[in-house]
Automatic annotation (TrEMBL):
SUPFAM superfamilies: P-loop containing nucleoside triphosphate hydrolases. It comes from the Bacteria. It comes from Amycolatopsis magusensis. Residues 5-237 form the ABC transporter domain. CDD domains: ABC_TM1139_LivF_branched. The keyword Ribonucleoprotein does not apply. Belongs to the ABC transporter superfamily. This is Branched-chain amino acid transport system ATP-binding protein. Coiled coil: none annotated. Keywords: Amino-acid transport, ATP-binding, Nucleotide-binding, Transport. The lineage of its organism: Bacteria, Bacillati, Actinomycetota, Actinomycetes, Pseudonocardiales.
Amino acid sequence: MNGGLVVSGLSVHYGGVRAVDSVSFTVGAGECVGTTGGNGAGKSSTLKALMGLVPRTAETIRFGDSDLTKVKARDIVRHGIGYVPEGRHVFPGLTVEKNLLLGAYVRKWKGPTLTTLGEVFDLFPVLGEMRDRLAGALSGGQQQMLAVGRALMTNPRLILLDEPSMGLSPKLIEDILAVLQRLRAAGHALLLVEQNAKLTFEATKTCLVMENGEVAMTGASQDLSRDPRVRQIYLGL
């Protein structure tokens, strides 16, 4: 798949426990794929494995022309993959602008970096308005936008997002959905891990439903949102 992500036989072990069991999927260029399921389903472990943050085995992890099984974790971002970790992990004692500029550490300064910074402020005007404010003073939703903006500063072709709605109010979850829809409209490929199945189905085109470290179901997000089993187990309907 030219320009896309191809994963096959991905497994993650924590001691004697297999958290992810031979998972396979693809994310095409410009495609938005969701991964949902309950706690302990293996969703976040899958993203961390792709970023090289946990021990893993895999037949294939290929992004475009790059074999990521041979790339160290610190270098994966240089291959065009941005990562928004669970819990946001912004630098609270630094300003919004400095948090964003830290996200551009893999790029050459100045012109291209400042151009991307302007694009992030265009995408998230509230960050531009608060560029000199400490990140620790932002609301949870604003910090999530900052975490997404920081990932965008690497100029990625694919963005991995881990539980972006965690700990947010229903209103802020709607704001995050709007952020994801803006990213889609801008042509970014997304791989979204999210326990909130409703948000996942609304934000993505294709979705994987994980259980016990395996892909239990896969298909078009709209179709899965209408599936009686998914509605009962994951939507509580």
